[in-house]
Amino acid sequence: MVAYNAHMTIDDDKVYKALADSSRRQLLDRLHQQGGLTLSELCEQQDMTRQAVSKHLALLEAANLVATVKRGREKLHYLNAVPINDIYMRWIGKFEQKQVQALFNLKQALKEDHHDET
């Protein structure tokens, strides 16, 4: 298993920059489907050179979106979804919460109106 340091700070700019490139998103999708892939395995389905994949992985690691584990001479890559979740909570989740709260309030108001009519 991959251990994540709870004290890591997320540099939002690095995360956004890493997610802005479709090739890097494809690599993250591959790691989401199957974690623990080597550089060679990640290169197999990519239409780019090994060096390009390596550079993309370095950016993903710098953004803390990819965690690595050494196994012998191999370096295994895993998706770290924590920064993506943090973005979701910061930019999407808080807006959804307001909508959910508004729906809850509407439901409560409708219940009270229905209760008052009976």
Determine the number of helices (DSSP H or I, runs of at least 4 residues): 5
Q: CATH H level of the largest domain: which superfamily?
A: Winged helix-like DNA-binding domain superfamily/Winged helix DNA-binding domain
Helix amount: 55-70%
Tally of domains: 2
Label the overall shape: elongated
Which strands sit side by side, in order, in the main sheet?
1-2
Mean of residue pLDDT values: 87
Helix/strand order, N-terminal first: HHHHEEH
Summarize the main sheet.
2 strands, antiparallel
CATH topology of the largest domain: Arc Repressor Mutant, subunit A
SS content category: mainly alpha
Give the tally of β-strands: 2
Runs in which pLDDT lies below 50 for 5 or more consecutive residues are 1-9
Distance separating the two termini? 58 Å
CATH 2nd-level architecture of the largest domain? Orthogonal Bundle
Q: What CATH first level of the largest domain would be assigned?
A: Mainly Alpha
**Share in β-strands:** 5-15%
Report on the architecture of this protein.
There is one protein chain. The chain has 118 residues and is mainly alpha-helical. It folds into 2 domains: 10-80, Orthogonal Bundle (Arc Repressor Mutant, subunit A); 81-118. Helix content is 63%, strand content 10%. It has 5 helices and 2 strands; from the N terminus they run ααααββα. The protein has helices spanning 12-19, 22-33, 39-43, 50-62, 82-117; strands at residues 66-71, 74-79. Strands 1-2 form a two-stranded antiparallel ribbon. Helix 1 (12-19) runs antiparallel to helix 4 (50-62). The chain is elongated.
